[in-house]
Write a structure and sequence with these properties.
The chain contains five helices and no strands. It is mainly α. Among the domains are: 55 residues; 58 residues. Helix 2 packs across helix 3.
């Protein structure tokens, strides 16, 4: 209870209140809204979108199964595939090529060319590894299919080259993979000379003993 007749609303005034009461409180305005909170919520939303946090739904349970983890990882890789491809093609690769060109011009590295044959750029980010895992799964399915088609289809598989490619995709150290041996040159057979022509045999002419020369 508050009696307005017993109080003075001047600076420094002490307003007594009954024990257990809330005292003098401001009236709440139902139409008032906090603009600063709206700005903060919008800022948080943009930050989460820039960091690619809101691309997947929230985790419903505290503990996820292995299948759910794999599915969420696959979904994340599928959603971010286009973004990762653009970053790799439009920013990372040109930036690295420019850095190599500057270091080569200064003489700090040998005169090499990143042409994909002598020197090749390999991206080892988690998203690149996820893409490599999908390629590995597709290759393994292809190998299973060729084995089911019979020996003729299995004969088209280069086992050594396939094993090397799988090792590189899995990130196996290079020292554990046997280097590809250079092809052995096939000896060229020596030309066979034709035998010399054989002269035909001439039979001797018989001489008549009864004829005299006079």
């Amino acid at each position: 209870m508050l009696n307005p007749a017993t109080i003075r609303l001047v600076p420094g005034t002490i307003i007594p209140k009954a024990v257990g009461s809330a005292g003098l409180t401001p009236l709440a305005n139902p139409g008032r809204f906090d603009v600063s909170q709206l700005v903060l919520d919008d800022l948080r939303s943009r930050i989460r979108h820039a960091l690619l946090v809101d691309r997947l739904g929230p985790v419903e349970q505290a503990r996820m199964t292995a299948t759910e983890v794999m599915e969420r990882s696959s979904e994340m890789a599928r959603l971010l595939g286009a973004t990762y491809g653009r970053l790799q093609a439009e920013m990372l690769t040109p930036l690295l090529l420019r850095a190599v060109a500057i270091l080569r011009r200064r003489g700090e590295i040998p005169d090499i060319a990143v042409d994909g044959r002598l020197v090749e750029l390999q991206h080892r980010s988690p998203l690149a590894q996820a893409q490599a895992q999908r390629d590995v799964q597709a290759t393994l399915r292809w190998l299973d299919t060729t084995r089911q088609l019979g020996p003729e289809a299995a004969a088209t598989v280069d086992a050594a080259a396939t094993a090397r490619w799988l090792g590189e995709a899995f990130g196996v150290p290079a020292k554990l993979i046997r280097a590809e041996e250079p092809p052995v040159p096939t000896p060229t057979p020596a030309p066979v000379s034709a035998p010399p022509p054989v002269a035909p045999a001439v039979a001797p002419v018989p001489v008549d003993a009864g004829v005299s020369h006079g």
